[in-house]
Amino acid sequence: MKLVYFARIREQLGCDEETLALPNGISTLAELIDWLAQRGECWRQVLTAPDLICALNQEVVSPDAVLADNDEVAFFPPVTGG
């Protein structure tokens, strides 16, 4: 599984992407976020923000999206334009 972090999320976490095996017992995006949040306070704050946008294989999804080992999960801050 590939995890990609964009914009200020990348800056806050100090990580732009990583590859890992889908952890045992994790089947949804929400469970993955909870698992990643255990890495520390910064991870918890960033990944549990109410305005976090998540994409699964380049499609925006809800937290109940089901994951597979070969998926790409991306995390984005809210998009602004002007």
Report on the structure:
The protein is of the alpha+beta class and about 80 residues long. It has a single domain, classed as Beta-grasp domain (Ubiquitin-like (UB roll)). Helices cover about 30% and strands about 20% of the residues. The protein has three helices and five strands; from the N terminus they run βαβααβββ. It has a five-stranded mixed beta sheet. α2 (about 30-35) packs antiparallel against α3. The radius of gyration is 12 Å and the shape is globular. The termini are far apart. The relative contact order is 0.28. The mean pLDDT is about 95.
> How many structural domains are formed by the residues?
1
Helix content: 25-40%
How would a textbook summarize the main sheet? Answer: 5 strands, mixed
- Assign the CATH class: Alpha Beta
